[in-house]
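Bug #77: duplicate submission created two jobs. Keeping one. Sequence:
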Amino acid sequence: MTNDYFIFVPAYNVEKTLGDVLSKIDVGVLSRAKVLVIDDGSRDGTAESFQNFMDAGCSTLEYAAELKSHFNYLKFEQNSGYGAVVKKGIAEGLASGAKFIACLHGDGQYPAEKLREFFDEMERCDLDLLQGSRHANAGGAKLGGMPFYKRVGGVFLTALENKAFRVKLTDRHSGFVVYSARFLKTVELEKLSPSFDIDLELISIADARGFNLAELPIPTRYAGEVSNLNVVTYGLRVLRQIWRRMILGR
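Kept job's structure:
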C-alpha cells in the first residue's frame, strides 16, 4: 500500500539525538508514513543509536509491531554533503509514491512532533511547500538559543530574499520543510546544489514556477551543537541565488 507521507532524516554524527527525534514523530503520522534515516558517513555511533531505537524505543510506540516496519536506515560510506542527502531523500520519497515528502533533521533542532500539523496544513490548503519559521513569533529565535550572528544574518538575508521572491517569508533558512510530490516531480535533482543551500534552491524554484508556498511557526532549539555549516560561503551562495532571481528571473 502506498503511504501518504515520506519523511527523510539527514543524520551525520547524531548518536545523542537521533533516537529522541524519531520517538517524537506522532503515531498517527507514522501510520501513514515511511521514515528513511540517511546517515551521511557518520563517524560516531549514529547507526547504533538507530538500532537501539528500533530495539527499545520503538517498543514504546502504540501499534509498535506494525509501525516498526515503517522505519528504514541507509548509510553513505563516505560523507557526501547535505545536498546529496536531500537529493537522495527526495528521490526515495518520489519513488515511494507518497503525496508529501518531509525533511526532518536528526540533530534535534527541528520539531518532529509538529509534522502532523504540517502535513494537515499541506492537505487543507493544497500547498506545495511549507517551511517552518523560527522568526514568525517575535523573539522566539533568541529565546531558543539561536546564536546572535545567525539571528542577524538570517534576518538580513531573508529581507533581501523577500525583495526578490514572489512569496514573502519570515525565515528562508530553516531546514524543516514539507514538499508536495507534485512540485518535486518538476525539479531536476541532479542540477541542485550539493551543499546546505539546496533548501533555498528548492524554495526559489517553487516560487519562480508559481507553486503554493507558505510557512508555519516552529520553536527554535539550539543546545550548543557543532554546526557543519560555513556561514560565509553559505551567505555568498544565498546572495548568488538572489542575484539569479532578480537579474535572470529564475
